[in-house]
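Trying the structure run again after the queue cleared.
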Amino acid sequence: MFWINRPDVTVTDIVEILIIAFLLYHILVWFKTTRAWTLFKGILVILVFILLAAIFQMNTILWIADKTINVGIIAILVIFQPEMRKALEQLGRKRFISTLFSFDNGKNTVERYSERTVNEMVKACYEMGKVKTGALIVIENDVQLGEYERTGIELDSILSSQLLINIFEKNTPLHDGAIIVRGNRVVAATCYLPLSDNLALSKDLGTRHRAAVGISEVSDSMTIVVSEETGKVSLAVEGELYRNIDEVFLKKKLSEGHLKNVENGKLIDWKRRLQNVKKAKEPSDK
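Done. Tokens:
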């Protein structure tokens, strides 16, 4: 009678397998949705040639491959640097990180936009859409957009629908580029944004839409786009583009962002109150 020796599988082993499977899946998805997939296919072609050289004992090719493998690892890191940086930025914006760690010390809290600001932005976008005036509005959240703000012209003006319409009016000095909204104010105009290199985006999208997706990939901002060709309104959030949306959908998304920020502010305020209570209970040195 034959006995099969089975390894003892513990709960830790199962959890470890699930974690590895989860990481591999997301790495493959990341490769598939970025330029890294094309670069990775090129590396696979080189590896196939090296495998063939090993099978047929092509010593010269094997010697060259052996001498260049260390340099090749460094070259891969350099080639994939933009994609790796983007992946790490996206990992850092995951909500489970923000729930475990709070980096807000209470000194540089960002003012959040009000319901009035939401209504003014929605009103301006669809007024511009009626006359096919192109617009690009970036709404800053937790991730500071100072590096993009510095590429434009500083304004620091209270946001209103009339202001937005005048900024994006054709042939005016500030109409080209994006504006950045921080809290209830327009802080800068004519700002340059990074363009997305997502291959899944439609080929008929223009520079405005790709810039909107690009800034949403590197930050937690929400970006509103008004198409100059069609007058349709779109919204870019976390690398996704919601196209041809109506006023109700846009207002709902903006209000959700506002409510989420208010809740975060209450959480921070609750933590401060708890700290104050602990300090009050500590015995005095006197």
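Residues 115-267 form a domain with the YojJ-like (1 fold (CATH 3.40.1700.10). Worth checking whether this holds up in the mutant runs.
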